[in-house]
Amino acid sequence: MVQSSSEYRVTGAGGAQLHVAEFGDPAGPPILLLHGYAQTHQCWKRQLKADDLAYFRLVAVDLRGHGQSDKPADDRAYADGEAWAEDIAAVIAGADLTQPVVAAWSFAGLILCDYLRQHGDTELAGINLVSARTMVGTDRARGMSGKLFLELAPGFRDSDPVARDAAVRRFLDNLTASEIDPADYQEMLAYNLATPPHVCGALLNRSMENDDVLGALSVPALVTHGDADSSVLLAMAEHHAALIPDAALSVFKGVGHAPFYEDPARFNRELAAFAHRCQG
User: Measured on CA atoms in the order 79, 70, 118, 251, is the torsion positive or negative?
Assistant: First the structure.
């Protein structure tokens, strides 16, 4: 587990306490890291102490229902786009982030869109959609989704712990195109299983599209995607790149759903270059 330089809590929507951890240069330009479905901020471990990103102030949050953040029992706490939007706004304000670049992995693409729908992009310098999902629960969304999401993710909400453990292991076995380091695998298994089944179920019950939000973006976007991704298909990344006015598409060949883990050297280099461009 990567140790942060500071950790604190921010009050999000409905009083939910959100865990925030900081890395890198406290005086550097900020990058806000948003993790995916059933993850924690530790999924970014290959970024948090990386030399290419040491210049930046890296702020990584555990989203509501995940990691060390509060996990409301009411499923409605995870269905409300305004609540997700206020959580992100609270982190930006509570951490005193000035014009951050926001990197959103996988399901966090939806959360970022919730924020953009409510607050626009005036407080942001740019966005990095990382294997990101920005639509869910519709025919179009299913058409751009693969086995990892459609067939394997639902096992996360199984109430039987043995069946759930098996489902999460199948998910991790398909998460990347290359083999996950055994120690990392055990860490990932632990924090995936620590996300309560009711949270995982509530997240899967959302239905939304965000083309209108993305098409109106006025800040630059970097769209990062692996061409072997079996959760969010490359077609969704290509859709994002065509839709967003100022977007660049970076395709990682032979890489699965976590390019920041499978090829951290390239990912970190490209994120740093993008942030330098956005933040001057």
Answer: negative
For residues 63 and 81, what is the distance between their CA atoms, to the nearest angstrom? 13
Residue extents of the structural domains in the chain: 6-279
**C-alpha distances in Å from residue 46, one per residue of 18, 67, 219:** 22, 18, 26
Please count the other Cβ atoms lying within 10 Å of the Cβ belonging to residue 219: 20
Give backbone dihedrals phi and psi of 181, rounded to 5 degrees, phi first.
Answer: -55, 135
Q: Which CATH fold would you assign to the domain 6-279?
A: Rossmann fold (3.40.50)
Supply φ then ψ for residue 252, to 5 degrees: -95, 115
Q: What are phi and psi of 251, to 5 degrees?
A: -100, 125
| Helix segments in the chain, DSSP class H | 45-48, 81-94, 108-119, 139-143, 147, 161-173, 182-193, 197-204, 211-215, 234-243, 259-262, 264-279
**Region 64-83 average pLDDT:** 96
Over pLDDT 70: what percentage of the chain?
Answer: 99
Query: If you average pLDDT over residues 23-50, what whole number do you get?
Result: 97
pTM, 2 dp: 0.96
**SS3 label, residue 55:** coil
The dihedral through the CA atoms of 129, 257, 4, 40 has a sign that is positive
Give me the pLDDT at residue 3, please.
65
Rounded to whole angstroms, how far apart are CA atoms 262 and 280?
28
